[in-house]
Specification:
- With 353 residues, this protein is α/β, with parallel strands linked by helices.
- It folds into two domains: 5-226, no CATH class; 231-349, CBS-domain (Roll), CATH 3.10.580.
- The protein is 58% helix and 16% strand.
- It contains 13 helices and ten strands.
- The longest helix is centred in the first third of the chain and has 30 residues, at 92-121.
- Bound molecules: zinc ion.
Length: 353
């Protein structure tokens, strides 16, 4: 679950969440977006239907990725569109179709609406749209969504499609560099245009394109850095454990005494659970310091094998939050934590690992 988001329900079992910046944009639109010629009802209806179009776009992504056997963890709606967070990174040829499926949904909606408008009100309604007709605005809105998302730059879908095409001829790292460079150029172009033309809402969009390009690049280069590296190389091997007979007070003491956030819980040399900081604090508040940790710990803890690729372990770590236990069969080998992993990646980027 991403921080700074609000859940609004789920579609096909996929939770839909709104990022707070999207809510901010809605407020901005409410304050600045209305002009005197239109009724507020039409405006609200238009924004609502456009939002629905963005959702259908994301559902397009998630349906195509399901076809490749990749589950969608959640859909997050940002001001410049949505993101379908996938369980694992698709392969280059899968990524292409997953990326273009979203914009194709908007293209299909706008095409259907244009055909409807052409049939009922004639061709001139299409080429000389009035501002007040909801169907016309929605047709153009979806067309704009499709074109904007197909721009060949990170973090747009077009950028992902571009990367997957380049990755067929060059290395993934180089493909990522090209897609992210075009993302930064696009963001700067948008920003300059926004300032020159006085369209300050576009400045807001440029900012998000820039932020998204940086984020996407980081995620992609993290993947490149972790490919072909075994979990074993990045795990924590020097750590403290708790015994199942200890109390929450013991666990709290250990949390304070060490810099560790997650503690494997052992019965003999058998791992029976994992006690993370959040769970510890919640358990402490709910059951008090004298309760046994065995009643609070997570028995269904995330685990990874020591010899799998670090790139494969990343989604497991991302899903669990911050920590997974590295288990060779039933034997505890180490811990994989997001903190340690980021240190490992920095070292690797510097050429130390
Ligand atoms: Zn998309």
């Amino acid at each position: 679950m991403q921080t700074g988001t609000v859940g609004i329900g789920s579609v096909f079992g996929v939770p839909i969440r709104l990022h707070f910046t999207f809510l901010l944009l809605m407020v901005l639109l409410m304050v600045f977006g209305f002009n005197g010629t239109e009724s507020g009802v039409i405006q609200v209806l238009y924004i609502g239907l456009l939002f629905l179009s963005v959702l259908l776009h994301e559902i397009g992504h998630s349906l195509v990725s399901t076809r490749y056997g990749i589950k969608t963890i959640e859909i997050i709606v940002f001001p410049i569109g949505g993101i379908a967070r996938l369980e694992r990174q698709p392969k280059p040829q899968e990524e292409f179709w997953i990326a273009v499926s979203g914009p194709l949904v908007n293209l299909a909606i706008s095409l259907a609406l244009f055909i409807y408008i052409g049939n009922t009100r004639g061709m001139e309604a299409i080429f000389q749209p009035s501002d007040t007709n909801l169907t016309e605005r929605l047709a153009y809105g979806n067309l704009a969504l499709a074109i904007f998302n197909l721009l060949p730059a990170f973090p747009m879908d077009g950028g992902r499609a571009l990367r997957s095409v380049i990755a067929r001829f060059r290395s993934e790292a180089e493909a990522t560099r090209i897609a992210s460079a075009s993302g930064r150029i696009l963001a700067m172009g948008l920003a300059i245009f926004a300032i020159v033309s006085g369209q300050y809402l576009m400045l807001f969009i440029a900012f998000f394109v820039y932020l998204g390009a940086a984020q996407e690049t980081m995620a992609a280069s993290g993947r490149v850095l972790t490919q072909g590296v075994a979990v074993r190389a990045a795990m924590v091997t020097d750590f403290r454990t708790l015994s199942h007979g200890q109390t929450m007070r013991d666990a709290a003491d250990l949390l304070l005494a060490t810099s560790q956030h997650d503690f494997p819980v052992l019965a003999g040399d058998q791992v029976i659970g994992l006690l993370g900081r959040n769970l510890l604090l919640r358990g402490l508040a709910a059951s008090g310091p004298d309760a046994y940790i065995a009643g609070v710990m997570d028995r269904d803890f995330p685990r990874v094998a020591p010899d799998i690729d670090l790139a494969e372990a990343l989604p497991i770590l991302a899903k669990s939050g911050s920590c997974a236990l590295v288990m060779d069969g039933e034997k505890l080998m180490g811990m994989l934590t997001s903190e340690n992993l980021s240190e490992f990646l920095v070292l690797r980027q510097m050429g130390f690992q």
